[in-house]
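ok so i was messing around last nite and threw this chain in just to see what happens. nothing serious, just curious
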Amino acid sequence: MVLFQQNLIFFYVGVFFTLFVGVFYLLTFFENRSKFKDPRAKTYPAVSVIVPAYNEEKTLAKTVSSLLRMDYPKDKIEVIVVDDGSKDRTYEIAKGFSDKRVRVFKKENGGKGSAINLGIGKARGEFVAVLDADSFVSRQALKRMVGYFEKKSVMAVTPTLKVYKPRGFWQQVQSIEYLFSVFFRKIFSFMQGVYVTPGPLSVYRKSFFRKHGGFDEKNITEDLEVALRIQSKNYEIQNSINAYVYTVAPNTFGGLMKQRVRWFTGLTDNLYDYRGLFGRDYGSLGIFVLPIAVISILLVLTHLAYYGILGGLNALNSLYNLYLVNFDFATIIKEYFSGFSLWSLLNPLMVLFAVLIASSTFILYLAKKYSGDKGEVRLNFVMYLLTYGIIFSLWWVTTLAHKVFHLKVKW
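result:
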């Protein structure tokens, strides 16, 4: 126990920082709780939903069907499926939809950004939405989003994203992560600080792309880049917490690692490219949201370096002295329990941990309540609390290794 009671300064910093940020977001929630209701659209504008697809034969039919079932005027919506050089039956499945609202295009493989740009060029609607081919929309999703565009400065609206029927450890942990994101994305919208427009059904004014160019076709996180570009032009990005979209999350360790290394590599690259967004000229985004994201990353890496490397060496040295030099079972028991008492549970660090878990539980409750989530989350939340910090750290270490050794990041 003595080993664990020493050098806790970084633990205190990390826990206090996380708690401070959580409390700040909760205060923002209470200040804006009356604004959670989506504004009603006066009219329903024409929307073109672009579905970029590469080897998506397993989910594409369900994706397109969910779009066609949406409660939205049929003459105001079209679906554009862009097959990005698939090697499976994606194109044949897309062509199988006889509904005149579905148009299908096929191109050589060039990446998601190029597929979206082709769709934008073909779009007839005043607004364009992008929906990943492994995601499914709720019937009311689009209706609940378009009302935000009554305000001319709004260039994009994001939905509430949830994991589709989470099964197994990896999807269940992600389901909690996504629920937290539901809450934070809404809070960011109150602060004009949304910095990613996720692939599952973000909606944009088409005029933005005519004026400022389409999606960056070389960017591995094109949805993050376009959001930062929108912010850099001093436009708004809003969020509808009541527009539900469900996505198929990775269900294996390897698949999840590959996804997150791409996400995190794209995050670091885009934050560097748009470093001009940091600072008071961009309000809460520049002085709070983006700096908090960077500080969080640095804290994770600092904890790993200090407690992972140095702590590991100290532990090995202590074990060597204890077990190999002066081995004595009584000494081992005494060392393990030295300094332990029931009162030790009330030390400041334990109190901070307890408050942190309580605030996290409350945020999860709010996310479930306001997003209408009906799933059982208690066991998933316990798994999340026990493992997410380690998994998150592993993602960042792997991302850092890719950057240092110039390893190629793949889809």
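not much to say yet. The chain has 14 helices and eight strands.
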